[in-house]
Fold:
Amino acid sequence: MKTDTVTLTASPDGGFSFREWTGDGTGNPTRTVESPLGVDQSVTAVFTETYDATITGQTVAEGGGNPQNAFAVTLNKNVNPLDAPVVVSGSLADGTAKAGQDYTAGSGSVDFLGGEGTTAKYIETEIADDAYVEEDETFTVSVSSYNGGGSTTITDATITDNDSATVSIAKTTDGSEGGANGEFNVTQTAESSTDTVLSYSVGGTAASGSDYTALSHHHRRRHLGHHHRAGDR
Structure:
């Protein structure tokens, strides 16, 4: 018996991806159908829509209450009710912010069912409220799996600091001619994660050079309760 052989290749339109062939023939993604002359064959190409996911980092604050919405997850369109749920799985990952110090580590998934997608779902975490004066810090999401068929775009979340510090200079010891040097106590009300730089000079009714040794430079300090003598260089 003579047969005809037909080879089929699926070519989805933009926004769709090929899932499978059903019916007669063999092979995926290229389908081969052998049919005896005069015998009908039935083959169906099954396509599914593709979805692009966007994970947008939010601005969260120390002392802002917990848990907080750290990332908003959206799709570029709602999931077709005929499609399987679209699932984004992953875990929080360090940037300049560190898990266990600045935020609580976590992993999990966000599911979009039929009709969902363009309304954001959120990834939550707890933000630590420490006592350090520090710059704003960032962390992100590491995606471990995504079944939406499209792209994933991720931006960092930012933790804003709620601490501040004041630097003050107070005399602790008067200087005397031929005796003790004058001393000033430089204090900072809270410790900072980066160096605090204080620029200063010494002045008053006493004359620089004849009554005391001139001072004019930068003082760098991170910690509390530092003493500086007026005669130091």
